[in-house]
Structure formats: structure tokens, C-alpha cells
Amino acid sequence: MIDWLTADIDLDSVPLHVGIIMDGNGRWANARGLHRTQGHAAGEPALFDVVHGALDLGVQWLTVYTFSTENWDRDTSEVEFLMQFNVDLLERRRDELDDLGVRILFMGDVDDDRVPQVLRDRIRSAEELTASNTKMTMVYAFNYGGRIEIVDAVKTIARGVASGSIDPDTITMDTVSNNLYLADMPDPDLVIRTSGEQRTSNFLLWEAAYSEYVFTPVLWPDFDRHEFARCVGEYQTRDRRFGGAVDGPLTDGDG
Ligand code: IPE
Ligand code: IPE
Ligand code: MG
User: Fold this and answer.
1) For 68-75, what is the mean pLDDT?
2) What is the pLDDT of residue 249?
3) Distance between CA 126 and CA 136 in Å, rounded?
4) Is 86 annotated as catalytic?
5) Which residue in 58, 115, 53, 110 sits closest to 84, CA to CA?
6) What mean pLDDT value characterizes the chain?
7) Contact 231, 205 (CB under 8 A)
8) Of ligand 1's atoms, which has the minimum distance to the CA of residue 40?
9) What's the CATH code of the domain at 96?
């Protein structure tokens, strides 16, 4: 029994892993005559409401896209704001997440020279503090790009081939999966994108090969646990076939 839940969802088939492309902060701010950065700030309560909602529903993995490898192309002032915002966010929310039993992991190029040292330190300490938590893993896709993630996996595998530890003929899809940033992360079952855009923007390209996508027009700062639950409900109406045939009267073997 979850007291806030109004959406009609089956708690026995909640997705194990949900990814979210948190989009629309700038448009939310512009619509109110505010600066884009105020839209990012307004996204923080939305994110933490969703964390509480996901915990209540029993989601095991929640991956949120916080900064893409392409987001460096934005104005310096916005990029600087986002770096500092992430420092502040980790300081403000680290203990709360720890108390909730959430393990924090970062996925992406945290050691990029463009990432301020103070942020790298906060990231490492948040990961260390929460390393043994087991209620839910929250992955921050930060300075993350799906293509560079695959390139990095290819480089690691190529080094193994060059050193003789990997026979090229034995390379499988699992070899690639095992060399992605978080080898233990299950593939996302559901990817939600807010703000009405319908594209991946380089999010979890390999991992989301068979994910269900739910696109909602809600701008990220207006998103909350209720809309999250509604998206889970929409996911539950989908027929995940993984390449199989649709069940029907003309399927072979049905008599
Ligand atoms: C998503 O909101 C947050 C980041 C990409 C960091 P946007 O900043 O992309 O907001 P819009 O798409 O311009 O409205
Ligand atoms: C994707 O949103 C990245 C994040 C949400 C962090 P963008 O706003 O950067 O994507 P595009 O530019 O609309 O494709
Ligand atoms: Mg955007």
C-alpha cells in the first residue's frame, strides 16, 4: 500500500531499471521569464521527489542523464553553473540519499580535465559513502555519451587483443557489455524522456537496445513521482517482444 499512488500500476512488475532523460529545464525557465539556470535549480526537487517515488515502487536502478558529452557546447556561464550546481547538489543531498539506502554511482568521464577538481572529489566521496547501500542504485550519467562509452569499450578490448589476452574470434556482445562503464548495471527496461522531445540524445545507446521509451510533454521541473508512476503504468501496457512474433491466431503451433 503506497499512500500517494493514484496511477493504476502492478507493483509486481515494476521495471528493474528506469533511465530518465531529464529535459526541458531551459524552456520551463524561459516560459516564466527566468534565466535557464533557474530552470536547472527547479529540477532538483523534481529529481528527489522521483527518487522517493522510485524507492516506494521498488525500482532497483534509476539512471538520470545530468550532463551529456555534447552539453559542453553550451554557454560557459551555463556550463559553469551546472558544474557548481552538481557540487552543491551532492553536498546537500548526499546524506539524505545515504539515509534512504541509495547507492550513488557516476557513469561517464568524471576525470575529464574540464570537470572541476572539487566536483570530482564530491563525486568520489558520495560514491564511497553510499557504496554498501542496497535499496536502490542511482546512477548519474554525467559527462556521459553513449557513443564515447562504446569507443572506450572498444579501446579496452583492442588493448587486450594487442597484448594477447583476448582472441578476436572470441569477442561477443557480452565482451562489449562487460567493458562498458558500469559492467554490472542491468539494461534499462524503461527510458523516460520529458519535455516532448523524442530522441535519445546519446543516452545509453548500447544498453537501451530493447528498452521501452515513454515520452511525456511534462517539462522536467514539473515532473514528479505521480508522473513517474504514470510512465511506469504506460510501460506496463507494452508488449516487450525482443524480436519475437506477436501472439495471434495465425502463429505456427497454435493449432
Ligand atoms: C535538461 O534541460 C538539462 C540539461 C541538459 C543539463 P535543458 O537545459 O536541455 O532544457 P531545454 O531543453 O533547453 O528546455
Ligand atoms: C539531453 O538533453 C541531455 C540531458 C538531459 C543531460 P539535451 O537538451 O542536451 O538534448 P538535445 O540537445 O535536445 O538533443
Ligand atoms: Mg534540452
Assistant:
1) 98
2) 84
3) 15
4) no
5) 115
6) 97
7) no
8) 3
9) 3.40.1180.10
From the candidates 3, 10, 12, 23, which is the catalytic residue?
A: 23
Q: What is the model's pLDDT at position 1?
A: 82
Question: How far does the centroid of ligand 3 lie from the alpha carbon of residue 226, in Å?
Answer: 22
On the 0-12 / 13-18 / 19+ scale of CB atoms within 10 A, 145 is buried
Asked if 179 is an active-site residue, the reply is no
Q: pTM for the full model?
A: 0.96
> Shortest CA distance to 183 belongs to which of 160, 206, 164?
206
Q: How many domains does the chain have?
A: 1
Instruction: For residue 40, give the C-alpha cell.
Output: 536547472
Q: Is residue 163 part of a domain?
A: no
Candidates 57, 51, 56, 141; CA nearest to 102 is: 51
DSSP of 38-70: HHHHHHHHHHHHHHHHHHHHT-SEEEEEEEETT
Q: Is residue 194 part of a domain?
A: yes
Give the type of residue at 157.
I
C-alpha separations of 37 from 10, 26, 50 in Å: 37, 7, 21
Q: What is the pLDDT of residue 255?
A: 47
Please give the distance, rounded to the nearest whole angstrom, from the Cα atom of residue 23 to the centre of ligand 3.
5
Residue 246 lies in a domain: no
- φ/ψ of 142, rounded to 5, equals -130, 130
**pLDDT of 39 strictly over 70:** yes
The answer to the question of residue 115 being in a domain is: yes
pLDDT given for residue 167 in this prediction = 98
Please give the Cα distance from 129 to 175 (Å, whole number). 30
Q: Which residues span the domain enclosing 200?
A: 17-146+188-235
